[in-house]
Amino acid sequence: MTEKAYQILFVCLGNICRSPAAEGVMHSMVEQAGLSSMIHIDSAGTEGWHRGKLPDARMREAAKARGYTLQSRARQVRLADLETFDLILAMDADNLRNLRALDPEGLHTKKIQAFCDFCTDHDEKEVPDPYYGGSEGFEKVLDLLEDGCANVLRQIAKA
To answer: Tens digits of per-residue pLDDT, 38-87?
Structure first.
């Protein structure tokens, strides 16, 4: 692990369900590993519709039931994020495409990745957006996030 904090950005569409949940799950895992001073975690959305809002109440409730606190406020991805963060994880193919569109010269291609590429216990290629579904969708998102975040942490800890 380097002396500079390793910076991770989780990205979904509106930054009120999937990416703030990933941020909360990762914060918990990093804290439990005693690495809070070495890893900085944030989340953002490719769209700015929900700027300043807390995560969706249903996502907060599902996360709380698993012991996670989601307190971040929604924000939109900024061009500067591509420079700042060491790893930028998109929740689905649309978000991945939108992030890569911010980097037309491909300067940050290696750091912009699909979140589900880190999942080993699940076969999904995308973290589904639970916004328009029922409670089972939020549970599925948390299952995927726990799987992927654990593997992201393992990879970072090895570096």
So the answer is: 999 999 999 989 999 999 999 999 999 999 999 999 999 999 999 999 99
Catalytic residue among 12, 116, 119, 149: 12
Domain total of the chain: 1
Which helix or strand (DSSP H or E) is residue 99 part of?
Answer: helix 93-101
Determine, yes or no, domain membership for 32: yes
Residue 129 annotated in active site:
yes
| 117 domain-assigned | yes
Catalytic residue among 56, 81, 92, 129: 129
Catalytic residue, candidates 18, 60, 116, 119: 18
- What's the CATH number where 41 sits? 3.40.50.2300
In a domain, 64, yes or no: yes
Annotated active-site residue 18? The verdict is yes
Q: Which domain holds residue 82?
A: 6-158
Q: Per-residue pLDDT tens for 107-118? A: 999 999 999 999
Q: Is residue 10 part of a domain?
A: yes
> Over the range 14-43, which residues count as b (16 or more CB within 10 Å of their CB) and which as e?
bbbbbbbbbbbbbbbbbeeeebeebbbbbb
Q: Is the pTM for the entire model greater than 0.90?
A: yes
Rounded Cα distance, 71 and 106, in Å: 32
